[in-house]
Design goal:
The protein has 362 residues and is an alpha+beta fold. Helices cover 41% and strands 14% of the residues. A 6-stranded mixed beta sheet has the order 4-3-7-8-10-9, with helices on one face. A two-stranded antiparallel sheet has the order 1-2. It starts with a helix and ends with a helix. 25% of the residues are buried.
């Protein structure tokens, strides 16, 4: 009791997590730790995680406090002895107290324009991992889903109208690559026909929205954020995120995602499937019905976003390399004059791309 009284003044006890701990936990802190800042840290963690006395002692013995500090050092998240902005965004309990606009705003609209009333509007706060998870859950809870049978197992498969991984990729891109010096926030807006994800900040000078459709270098705006997100498997560090989105949408028979810059914002668009009336199912177009290959129809949809080379097409379709199916589809589309080469005089050029013809656009 004397040691406790000598260590903590009356004022500091009332303002500290120590006051909320049991006596046995306080004794463990006093016996096993010498530095007041370490005692406060373990007291806070014990309350946060609901540790009992044995849990608290085990964590002290394991050197959790020192290991946490080493992790921040290893990830270069310390600015001197203080946590950097990236550390705050990644691990702080309430980052928005320090970086006000690091929140994510999620909006749901009835139609295809920004117009009231809003069926749902949420502002999410927390660390970047929480922001991503909450924003993805917001979108997935608002879109259509189909639940299958349990024929193949105890869990019924669920298929959403937008691929969950594509939605997550768009939101992670916005949170990881946004300009945190901007006074704007990331906005996730779900319309009747599309999902748009806006983030403040534009692409690096060496990249354009069009180049995102092809293999490109990874150039993170916030490398100190990107590393922990990569280690937590939220992102890849290979510049494949936008290609993955294109491939996932093509596999789901959706239009290719859109990428554009406007007014200091980078905007990603995922197109929702067009609603089909159960009384009058949407027929295939004359061009689509005349195609023998399902892959050919997917290639046509990919090329609506702009010219693409064989490798980019294969990648967008989820193929590891240029497959026979891709080559057959391109031949079929060329023969039907639905696509054309961008370099007709150099058929085997490595710069060769394919684009839609006037016939296919009519």
């Amino acid at each position: 009791m004397l040691a406790f009284a000598q260590t903590w003044s009356e004022k500091s006890i009332l303002q500290s997590p120590i006051a909320k701990l049991t006596w046995t936990k306080n004794v463990a802190l006093l016996d096993r730790l010498k530095k007041p800042e370490e005692r406060k840290w373990y007291a806070h963690e014990a309350l946060k995680h609901g540790w009992n006395c044995k849990d608290l002692i085990r964590q002290i013995k394991s050197g959790l406090y020192e290991r946490q500090g080493k992790a921040l050092t290893h990830l270069r998240l310390l600015d001197g002895n203080r946590p950097s902005h990236a550390a705050v965004l990644l691990f702080a309990k309430a980052p928005q107290k320090f970086l006000l606009t690091s929140e994510v705003k999620c909006l749901h609209f009835h139609g295809t324009e920004v117009r009231k009333p809003l069926p749902s509007y949420q502002t999410y706060k927390g660390a970047v991992f929480e922001l991503v998870d909450q924003a993805v859950d917001f979108v997935m809870s608002k879109i259509a889903r189909a639940v299958g049978t349990r024929a193949a197992g105890s869990a019924a498969p669920v298929e959403y109208e937008l691929p969950r991984d594509a939605v997550a990729e768009a939101i992670v891109n916005a949170v990881a690559h946004r300009d945190y010096a901007s006074k704007a926030s990331v906005q996730v807006m779900l319309f009747a026909d599309r999902l748009e994800v806006w983030n403040p900040g534009e692409l690096p000078p060496s990249l354009t929205p069009e180049l995102l459709r092809y293999p490109h270098a990874s150039i993170p705006r916030n490398p100190l954020l990107a590393e922990p997100l990569f280690l937590a498997r939220y992102i890849e560090k290979a510049g494949t995120g936008t290609l993955d989105m294109i491939g996932l949408c093509a596999a789901a028979d959706l239009l290719a995602p859109g990428f554009r810059q406007s007014g200091g914002q980078f905007i990603q668009t995922l197109w929702r499937p067009k609603p089909v009336s159960p009384e009058k199912p949407r027929p295939e177009s004359g061009l689509e019905s005349g195609l023998e290959s399902h892959t050919s129809r997917k290639v046509l949809k990919l090329l609506t976003a702009g010219p693409m080379g064989r490798s980019a097409i294969a990648k967008a379709l989820g193929h590891e390399r240029i497959s026979g199916a891709v080559n057959r589809s391109l031949r079929e589309l060329l023969e039907k004059e639905l696509i054309q080469r961008t370099l007709p005089e150099k058929r085997n050029s490595r710069l060769q791309k394919y684009r839609l013809t006037v016939k296919s656009r009519v």
